[in-house]
Amino acid sequence: MPAVADVDYKIDLTEPTHHTGDVQITFPATDKDYLDIKMPAWRTGYYRILNLANGVRDFQVMTEDGDSLNWHKLDKSTWRVELPANARAEDIVVEYQIYADLLGRRARHIDDSHAYLDASAVFMYADEYRQEPVSVSLEVQDSWRSVSGMDSTDDHRFVADNWDILVDSPIETGINKLFKFEVDDRDYEVVFWGEGNYDAEQTVADLKKLVTTGPEIWQGYPYQRYVFMIHATSGAGGATEHRNSTIIQRPRYSYGSREDYLSFMSTASHEFVHTWNVKAYRPAPLVPYDYQKENYTELFWIAEGSTSYFQDHLLLKADIMEPNEYFERLSKDIEKYYRKPGTDVMSVAEASFEAWSDQYGDRAQNFSVNIYAEGATISWLLDMALIEATDGEVSYRDVHNELYQRFDADEVGFVSDDVLTILEDLTGKSWQDWWATNVKAPVADVPFAEMLQTVGLELTFKSDDEQLPWVGWKGSESAEGVKLTRVERNSPAWNAGFTPGDVIVAYDDHRAAGGRFKEAISEYQVGDEVEVTFFRRDQLQQTTIVIGEEQHTGATIVPVKEPTAKQQARFLQWLNIPHPNA
Questions:
Q1: Does the pTM of the predicted model rise above 0.85?
Q2: pLDDT on residue 89
Q3: How far apart are the C-alpha atoms of 487 and 499, rounded to whole Å?
């Protein structure tokens, strides 16, 4: 049981309509001249500075006897409280109002139906007491139910051994649906907030299967109790991992189709993998988390990309996803890789370090890679290389189990040399050259077909069999024309000088507005010249674009009909399930 709380948090949520709550924190007495009280600048699982202190108003501090204490701000996230000698024997009481309307950031959200509270965006801390026991009490409406990964002492009070557990254990309170089950002597809860077209019973049944798959990769579970929090929203989407819980958000009517449901379950699996990879072991610069500034590492591609790589593998093993459904998703990922010119510019190591300032949109697509998508591809490359180098004795799963066994995120994290040591320990050979080529350097040419052939799968592209016209831009239609939102580097549109923001109004003297522009361009032949009229900076311009030939589209992955014994063995070693035609 957690120790008696030394820091006591309370939040009044009885008037939630306008997204506000009243917070009170009681800190123990200290003999210092002052106490610095801080609000984090970011939250775990979302590597961006969020300026979470911007929701704080009406900040005030007093002694437990009610005497006001002077304070001033040192920076945007730090309040320094002056402690005269006559106040140092008393507890310190901090009060402020928090504005919570960051649902899509999965940071804080309060309304008349619920409150979602990630402590990093709600509850301040002081370094002196960060490792002391804490309690959190919620004052809520009678109809509300409160759920968290923390231990509870009554319906709306939670306790934890320290603030680091509190900050990694979000609270969902409000009007919700709650399901509980037990698997292998571990307790699970699934809480749904919001109405939507989800099937709660089916979701819970599949989550029961998912949570059995941990031993496919790791020896042991890092939790005794786990909570799935699911939000059916009016547009917000995303998910975040926590110590022994996750929050998953999707638009309320995006659960019904098979494709939507598999997307949801992939997200759930992704966050489940994170319970080990990131929460049980993680890169050294994130141990412990420094919530006041960026925590830079070149290994976010392992934290996020490898998690993305494993997520559907667990769904296959749990019989939640069929092999043909996995092949379809994988083929789409391959197409996206070929449509990402940034792969010949940026390495996954550089992308990891730059994650805190990662760009979006056209520039990112053309000159960057992603720690998730491209990180998953490099993880796949490493998996195949390990399997081949050891004749199937070692896979990438073994690497992650070793990371779990050797590194405890509460004490110490790992660096690149630690991963290389594990690789050498497992295989008896150095992986320095492989790392330099595939992690530290850009990888524009991935041998997808060869990797798939090794495991008895065939990759084909529709574009190999027919000439498909291509310009390399994307746009959104409006009454004026088509406004370009993306132009692929080295595409015909790029070479013709087009850039996002250009508004195409005509092609070969035909009007672009009206809904047929995309279809009309597809009717041209490869090599045709098209006169395009467009606005840039509100000035009418005209240029010629030469229609190109699209490559690597219409990807399809199918099992070979008669796989060899080696292909069957490699498939099993890769996905831990039999080849479909074995």
A1: yes
A2: 85
A3: 6
